[in-house]
């Protein structure tokens, strides 16, 4: 899933070409618009592809140590290693059969040499536009439009991923489910736009409270949020959430409809599990139950429960 600030980014092209004059010419056509990296051999191309992310590969077919068709086939068969890179063949093998072969192996396009600047720029631009549209689509399906944090769908995916990762790596996983207190009254009293603004502040507060790369914050439902904390025990999770609640209360968002304070607060339920010894549905249900307990105990507080511990 892409972060918001990755939506406006520079695109990276790997040029696989051994002929110096072609390299110079193509670099002249493309390097002002894209980040261009050059590989003169099959070996170098595969090394670069495995070690850094590229969006597009411009692939010559006749290379000193290999063949572009075979590189394309290998990359397409090993997407988990090489990523979802687009491939444009760029070759002097100009027969329809060669072109058909390149496209049927998974190439996205096929450009004939000698390369024409206008044709090359247009074909590259088309592939990059497709990549960009896919990124935007992914962004809009995974991010909540109001708060600009990941949505429920993204959370479900992340939970699945982190649950399996924690099983593999023998780590704890903590989940907090949060709910704004008396939010119906807040909407009724201050209006829906003010309610929306309150949700945005809540999301921003969580984003500044949980700053580790592995921390994952999502809008879980209407006025509910979820935080996944990888490799974090219950005590630490509760401490972090208490700090986050204190920071939120400090924002002092007036709430005359709250029976417990004159500002907006939230309640949270936390569950910590050892995914090797538990089920993710029990994990979710327990966090939910803890949230209801926090509500029952008076709101503006955090309750938590540990499921199976890590083995000693
Ligand atoms: N402004 C706004 N309100 C929302 C949104 N999504 C859900 N809500 C409101 O959130 C409120 C949730 O109300 P309840 O589930 O009764 O919970 P509550 O009033 O917070 O009560 P407690 O959780 O028991 O403290 C409802 O009034 C929903 O309309 C949203 O996107 N924007």
From TrEMBL:
InterPro entries from the UniProt entry: CheY-like_superfamily (IPR011006), Diguanylate_Cyclase (IPR050469), GGDEF_dom (IPR000160), Nucleotide_cyclase (IPR029787), Rev_trsase/Diguanyl_cyclase (IPR043128), Sig_transdc_resp-reg_receiver (IPR001789)
Name of one Pfam family that matches: Response_reg
SMART domains noted in UniProt: GGDEF, REC
Residue span(s) of domain GGDEF: 171-307
Keyword Ligase attributed: no
Top-level taxon: Bacteria
Catalytic reactions on record: 2 GTP = 3',3'-c-di-GMP + 2 diphosphate
Broad EC category: transferase
Listed EC numbers: 2.7.7.65
Residue span, Response regulatory domain: 12-128
Protein name per UniProt: diguanylate cyclase
